[in-house]
Amino acid sequence: MRIDRKIITRDQAETIIGELKSQNKRVVFTNGCFDLLHVGHLELLEQSKSFGDILVVGINTDRSLKIFKGPDRPILPQEERARLVASLEMVDYVVFFDEETPFEILSQIKPNILVKGGDYKFDEIIGRDIVDEVKIIPFVKGKSSTSIIDKILGWQQQTP
What is the pTM of this model? Predict the structure, then answer.
């Protein structure tokens, strides 16, 4: 499937997921900023895909990412972040959400499984009551967009 066809609207996601679930496909959803794609993201996405048939990735819009991460973010605009994630083989669909949390999109599309990284505790996971199952996968220590940005800024400060 062409990358651009993997990037869908929320309404398209609702329709597609409804059809897939009627075919007894297990739909997995995970979400994030994906501001700078790194190995921690790949681990999350690979493991997420292993839990079901279809992987839908929710990506924060630029506006919601700014609220969540601060005024200096995002590094990459949402269209680029979506294309990068959609280009990955294990990702079936990418959909944006503009809210601070994925609660509204989860309520609309109703995936079977929600996957979060190990930096979340079960009772902190937004949407856990909407899905059939929640999976928490181990966080890849030291692998985050923030740590990459901090490293780059550290190098920048050392340059005369």
Answer: 0.89
